[in-house]
Fold these 2 entries.
Entry 1:
Amino acid sequence: MINSHSSTVSQVSFVDRLRLSTSALHKQLESLSLSQLIVSPEITVQKYAEYLQIMEPVVRDIELKVYPVISNLISDINRRKKLSLIREDLKVLGFSITNISTEFDADFEIPFALGIMYVLEGSSLGGRVILKNIENQLGFTAECGAQYFAGYKENTGSLWKSFVSEMVRYEQEQGCGDVIIEGANFAFRLIFEYLETGNK
């Protein structure tokens, strides 16, 4: 039987390993000009819309093709869908949805899918910083034009913690940490490629 202390230690240990193992690709993603611009005072409506246009198919395909794989594991997964928010923001901005195809269409196994979701859910935390910049520089708000980055609003922190808890519980039960890490790095790598090429 795993006592509460050892369970907490295991959770911290795996989350730390996951964060460390994905840090290089995470930093590479953050180093992109568009990633830096989205949190900069120099952001424009055009560049903001470009960012959303690139992320829309990523969010679309993760929700359509990855979420079903873990729908029985993440109890509140339907609450985490934000595709409609990003599309509504683009509508407010006056920009269309692109027809970009992504590689989030394979038959992923559960731990790999969890790694992908870890990246998308983690972006909800960073979205709070982006939201503040969009509000200050462009005047869009969590209610109009910046719904996607508002994410779960006041529930962002608690929903992140509950996801991490369910992910770690599965990792402890299945011993599949390496595959979760592979999925997370896969997601970071693909999002980097879409943002890098889509902004050229």
Note: The mean pLDDT is 91.
Entry 2:
Amino acid sequence: MQTAIARSGPDSVAIADALCGSGACIIDGLFADLADDLAAESRLLQQRGAMQAARVGRGSSQQENLQLRGDSALWLDDPACIAGRQLLHRLERLAEGLRESLRLPIRSVEAHYAHYPAGASYARHRDRFRDSGSRLLSWVGYLNPDWRVDDGGQLRIHFEDGASGDVLPTLGTSVCFLSELEHEVLPARLDRYSVAAWFRRDE
């Protein structure tokens, strides 16, 4: 039987159980009460030019490469992110629970808004850098109301057994997965908004 993306409730124990089973899970209800505010804020910040082209690589080797990655981003600790910082605090509380449930040395959370213009994508990659194991878990929350399958923009997670699973970026949906898993963002017909976060240990 091939690996598939599990489903989980919003508490850390349920998420931990799902991650132990498949390495990835769709989480129901984690930020439903914030979703509309986050969606509105992300669009407003993008319209104001607050988001900057995202880069690939790490440290001094970072560079902009639209063939690999076509989104722009703004970190949630920016003072302009009111709803975003509320979500960041919630993710920090979740990190505390996951540290206990999974017995992982999670020490911090980093997160940013992401905007993909129509047609943009993110090539297959891992969030854990080759020279650093600091990113342990990845989390993505989606901010796109009335999104349909034929709009595209799915997150595709690739499992070690060769199977893959897609997550549609609909408003209020979120997904958590091991940062060592390869994944990609497929092109969309419409502008696509999300929040990406990483649960980290010390370098």
Note: The chain has three helices and twelve strands.
